[in-house]
């Protein structure tokens, strides 16, 4: 036998296809790709199939170029230092584009700057993009990444295709989403997919200096969403939240809008299960603003004996009420964790550490001289004197100079969820898991008790609407200010926030829906010496246990002016020294000011879009507080 290989050289316009078969792609994908290839003018096109060979090829290229360095201490793991100007989400450059401004953002009161999303008109955005996209990939490879958010083929899942000129983004997308050529088979004739275009904005030959082999164009960053046509365009940044478009852009902003249209929810929530000593398992979803410990909570190691926690997801939940049973069923649309590294250690989150010991990418953390990762929080697990190379390339010996910082505060690990020692065996169940309780929380140094249960659904939505938190390094905000972050979705809502709150309220109208109980937690209350009143981390199981018992209807709550709070001694505090009264108090002066401030903020931001039910809730809370 003589084997004959027929090699067809494919081109789109005059751009060669290096890998993959363009002609065999679904027709609607070909049409869009052809336009984008023409627009971005790359040197070649690479259609990804999700294979291991592909990962190897791309990894080798990145290592050769110096963008990634192999961490020799672990298997298939790499460290990456970005341009120091490209380290977090850029909310000020993130836009929603719709014809009608108020489809994207609420009718804020005159003189109030809306912080619940930014709108740009299609014509203004066209100008911005015309200034950026033509030829933006010149001299670079254009990667086509087919991916599924949610298990491939599940009725709850959605398909996306991302184009990018960054192979760091390709590698990270392979960890965070399901990248596979299988995807094409699931895109039926003319079926919709989410179109994601990403460019670092550095065509060749480039005039700017490239720092750390990390191409980016910080002056021109633009992240825009077209929810009506299910499209995302991101330019100028390689940082995860700006560039892994399956994540915040698609799974929250675009999916949120699809969910609004179709009657479900796309939320900034972890999903976990708790099994008590009797073997009863409950699933909960919990929303916290970025960098407030969702990953730690989702993988918590319980300090109470007999309890088991298992993780389904740490950042995003897609949830819908089952038409037959009325249960709220949730899936994690992602396949990886993109977690904040600093502060993570074998004490605070052993499961996260164990998850990222292979097949992981570490961005903007420090490196030990023996090829390991290092960040603030690992000091007790790393021998003093260990030589560290910081994310800015500075060398120092651990313990010698306390002012040295190894990592950026928003440094991230990116690791496959399947490697998590406590990943739930149903984490990829296409039907999702039934949610019994929804928790909202933030960093609240003052005034806010450890846990509050809402009186009812509407009151729970009010609790979520008044969510606030101290700012963190996940976005560009500086200083420790308390910011409103309703539903922990302030940066992630893809449509009018008033409509979003109303959408939540409306689930009560269908009597078939089994509404989960809603809670508010605060692990971060401080005493007068600025010391945490609650130990947090593994001890949060004590609060989760109380929450689960409440979902079982146990009589362990009492009425306060801000919601139901635990009766004294109803939370198991065995072995802890805690000042219960300080932890649980509801100071009248604080809440009197707080409700006024909340009303003024919500009214200013949402104007007439603030749902009437929320105004009633505010009035009722005022009444209750005045009676303290
Ligand atoms: O947006 S990221 O995925 O980078 C992290 C976050 O802000 O939640
Ligand atoms: Mn997040």
Characterize the biggest β-sheet.
11 strands, mixed
Any idea what the CATH architecture of the largest domain is? Alpha-Beta Complex
Strand content: 15-25%
CATH class of the largest domain: Alpha Beta
Q: Indicate how many domains the architecture comprises.
A: 3
Determine the N-to-C terminus distance.
Answer: 91 Å
Number of helices: 16
Low confidence ranges: none
How many strand segments?
Answer: 33
What's the overall average pLDDT, rounded? 96
Oligomer: single chain
| Amount of helix | 25-40%
**Class by helix and strand content?**
alpha/beta
Walk me through what this model shows.
- One of its GO terms (biological process) is gluconeogenesis.
- Its cofactor is Mn(2+).
- This is phosphoenolpyruvate carboxykinase (GTP).
- Residues 264-624 form the Phosphoenolpyruvate carboxykinase C-terminal P-loop domain.
- It holds the Pfam family PEPCK_N.
- This protein is α/β, with parallel strands linked by helices.
- It folds into 3 domains: 11-65 and 90-262, Phosphoenolpyruvate Carboxykinase, domain 1; 266-336 and 423-626, Phosphoenolpyruvate Carboxykinase, domain 3; 338-419, Phosphoenolpyruvate Carboxykinase, domain 2 (Beta Complex).
- 25% of the residues lie in helices and 23% in strands.
- The protein contains 16 helices and 33 strands.
- The strands form 6 sheets. Strands 1, 2, 3, 6, 7, 8, 9, 10, 11, 12 and 13 form an 11-stranded mixed β-sheet that branches. Strands 14, 15, 16, 17, 18, 19, 27, 28 and 31 form a 9-stranded mixed β-sheet that branches. Strands 4-5-21-26-20 form a 5-stranded mixed β-sheet.
- It is globular, with a radius of gyration of 24 Å.
- The mean pLDDT is 96.
- Sulfoacetic acid binds at residues 89, 240-241, 247-248, 290, 338, 474.
């Amino acid at each position: 036998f003589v084997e004959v290989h027929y090699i067809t050289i494919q081109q789109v316009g005059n751009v060669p296809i290096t890998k993959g078969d363009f002609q065999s792609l679904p027709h609607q994908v070909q049409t869009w790709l052809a336009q984008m290839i023409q627009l971005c003018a790359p040197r070649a096109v690479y259609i990804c199939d999700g294979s291991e060979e592909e990962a190897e090829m791309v990894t080798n290229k990145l290592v050769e170029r110096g963008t990634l360095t192999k961490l020799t201490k672990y298997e298939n793991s790499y460290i990456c230092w970005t341009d120091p100007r490209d380290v977090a989400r850029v909310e000020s450059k993130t836009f929603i584009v719709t014809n009608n401004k108020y489809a994207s953002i609420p009718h804020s009161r005159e003189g109030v700057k809306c912080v619940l999303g930014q709108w740009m008109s299609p014509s203004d955005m066209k100008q911005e993009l015309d200034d950026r996209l033509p030829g933006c990939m010149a001299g670079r490879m254009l990667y086509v990444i087919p991916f599924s958010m949610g298990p491939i083929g599940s009725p709850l899942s959605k398909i996306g295709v991302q184009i990018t000129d960054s192979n760091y983004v390709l590698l990270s997308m392979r960890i965070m989403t399901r990248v596979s050529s299988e995807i094409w088979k699931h895109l039926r004739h003319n079926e919709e997919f989410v179109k994601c275009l990403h460019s670092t904005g550095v065509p060749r030959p480039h005039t700017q200096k490239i720092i750390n082999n990390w191409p980016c164009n910080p002056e021109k960053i633009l992240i825009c969403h077209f929810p009506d046509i299910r499209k995302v365009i991101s330019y100028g940044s390689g940082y995860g939240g700006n560039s892994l478009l399956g994540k915040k852009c698609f799974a929250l902003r675009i999916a949120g809008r699809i969910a609004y249209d179709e009657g479900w929810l796309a939320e900034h929530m972890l999903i976990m299960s708790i099994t008590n000593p009797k073997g009863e398992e409950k699933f909960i979803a919990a929303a916290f603003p970025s960098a407030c410990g969702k990953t730690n909570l989702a993988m918590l190691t319980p300090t109470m004996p007999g309890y088991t926690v298992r993780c389904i997801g740490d950042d995003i939940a897609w949830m819908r009420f089952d038409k037959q049973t009325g249960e709220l069923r949730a899936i994690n649309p992602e396949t990886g964790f993109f977690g904040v590294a600093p502060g993570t250690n074998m004490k605070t989150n052993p499961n996260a550490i164990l998850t990222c010991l292979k097949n992981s990418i570490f961005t903007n953390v420090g490196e030990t001289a023996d090829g390991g990762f290092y960040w603030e929080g690992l000091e007790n697990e790393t021998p003093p004197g260990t030589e560290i190379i910081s994310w800015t390339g500075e060398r120092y010996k651990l313990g010698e100079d306390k002012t040295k910082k190894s990592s950026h505060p928003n440094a991230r690990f990116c690791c496959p969820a399947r490697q998590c020692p406590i990943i739930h065996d149903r984490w990829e169940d296409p039907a999702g898991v039934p949610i019994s309780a929804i928790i909202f929380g933030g960093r609240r140094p003052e005034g806010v008790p450890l846990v509050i249960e809402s009186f009812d659904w509407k009151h729970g939505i009010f609790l979520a609407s008044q969510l606030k938190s101290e700012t963190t390094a996940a976005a560009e905000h500086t200083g420790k200010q308390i910011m409103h972050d309703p539903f922990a979705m302030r940066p992630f809502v893809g449509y009018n926030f008033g409509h979003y709150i109303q959408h939540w309220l409306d689930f009560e109208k269908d009597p078939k829906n089994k509404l989960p109980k809603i809670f508010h937690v605060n692990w971060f209350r401080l005493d007068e010496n600025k010391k945490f009143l609650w130990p947090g981390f593994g001890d949060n199981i004590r609060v989760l246990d109380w929450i689960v018992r409440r979902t079982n209807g146990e009589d362990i709550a009492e009425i306060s002016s801000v919601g139901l709070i635990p009766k004294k001694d109803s939370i198991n505090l065995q072995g802890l020294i805690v000042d219960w009264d300080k932890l649980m108090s509801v100071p009248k002066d604080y809440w009197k000011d707080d409700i006024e401030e909340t009303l003024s903020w919500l009214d200013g931001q949402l104007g007439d879009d603030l749902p009437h039910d929320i105004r009633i809730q505010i009035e009722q809370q005022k009444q209750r507080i005045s009676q303290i």
